[in-house]
Amino acid sequence: MKLKVVNKEGKETGKSVELNDEIFAIEPNQHVVWLDVKHYLANQRQGTHKSKERAEISKSTKKLLRQKGSGGARHGSAKAPIYVGGGRVFGPRPRDYDFKLNKKVKTLARMSVLSARAAEGKIVVVEDFGFESPKTKSYIEFLGALNLGGSKTLFVVDGNENNLYLSSRNIPKTKVVEKDSVNTYDLINAETILLAESTISHLETILKD
């Protein structure tokens, strides 16, 4: 698959890049995409939720009322869950939500999303550029030149484009990531994927290995 390269003004540069069909033109596997997204979201969970159970409540251990003759139920502790301030029954405990997912599954998931976006014409190759200083207005103008204002975009850049990241972080539905940090969740969450020209060969290398 061949794509034309555009500059930050949205104009064609006269150059084109050849995308590897083994990565950008495979049959998407929806199941592995679901698995990888599930794995990513599970890793985002802190798992620090906790509520006190009966044994962890600090209250008097004195018996509340006599065993018989009160006309009501028999109670022996204010820590019982039916009382205000009592312990919770089977409350949440800290846990790790991570689960094992093979590297080949993650790779296939990313390739599946890239192939799906390429088939939809939702991949744009942008000539390498940078900003002299962080400026949100400059990034908004860049998206406007590509007719992508207001749409969800993911811009994959080289690792030294910090000004691009700083310029985009306050813009809704927009994300800039380094080429080594591309994940399936970000790819599938974006309506259009922007690839810096210099990142394509790197992506093809890490996805073919």
UniProtKB/TrEMBL annotation:
Gene Ontology cellular component list: ribosome
Entry-linked Gene3D superfamilies: 3.40.1370.10
Residue ranges of the region described as Disordered: 45-79
Entry keyword annotation includes NADP: no
Top-rank lineage group of the source organism: Bacteria
Key words, A-Z: Ribonucleoprotein, Ribosomal protein, RNA-binding, rRNA-binding
Entry keyword RNA-binding: yes
Protein function: Forms part of the polypeptide exit tunnel. One of the primary rRNA binding proteins, this protein initially binds near the 5'-end of the 23S rRNA. It is important during the early stages of 50S assembly. It makes multiple contacts with different domains of the 23S rRNA in the assembled 50S subunit and ribosome.
NCBIfam families: rplD_bact (TIGR03953)
Family label: Belongs to the universal ribosomal protein uL4 family.
Subunit structure: Part of the 50S ribosomal subunit.
Name of the protein described by the UniProt record: Large ribosomal subunit protein uL4
Organism, scientific name: Lacihabitans lacunae
